[in-house]
Specification:
The protein is an all-alpha fold. It is 61% helix and 0% strand. The chain folds into two domains: 8-68; 82-130, no CATH class. The protein contains seven helices and no strands. Helix 3 packs across helix 4 (50-63) and helix 5 (82-93) packs across helix 6 (104-115). The chain starts with 7 loop residues before the first helix and ends with a helix.
């Protein structure tokens, strides 16, 4: 085994302190692997895909615990530019065209009229939350 690898006792201590549920699952998979269970058995025990177990074990064997940490997800890029988002934020903060609270539909219409981009209403509300 690589110098990155831990004995079961050390892994159990790390597992008990871990707060992240996904990391706990990965650590459990590694513990089962080190106990000699097959990757098929581990996937069945933990109710995850064998592909995930393979990836976790491979990452652990090559990089240790560091290999099990979540990688940053880039996600989908914004449709609106930073300048457009800034303009939209100003529109929302000033209350738009109405004297009452601005609605999601008004924001949706503003985006389409000013930037030529169509957003689903659910995406408009997510965008408002981010701003």
């Amino acid at each position: 085994m690589d110098s990155f690898c831990y004995d079961n006792e050390s892994l159990v201590k790390i597992l008990r302190k871990e707060k992240n549920a996904r990391m706990k699952l990965k650590l459990l998979a590694i513990l089962h692997f080190q106990d000699g269970k097959s990757r098929y058995q581990i996937a069945d025990y933990l109710k995850v895909s064998r592909t995930s177990v393979n990836r976790w074990v491979s990452d652990y064997l090559s990089k240790g615990l560091e290999g099990l940490k979540e990688k940053p997800h880039s996600g989908r890029p914004n449709t609106l530019s930073a300048a457009q988002l800034s303009q939209l934020k100003s529109f929302i903060n000033t209350g738009g065209d109405s004297k009452n609270n601005i609605t999601g539909v008004e924001v949706q219409q503003y985006i389409e009229d000013n930037f030529g981009v169509k957003y689903e209403i659910s995406s408009v509300y997510k965008l408002i939350d981010r701003l």
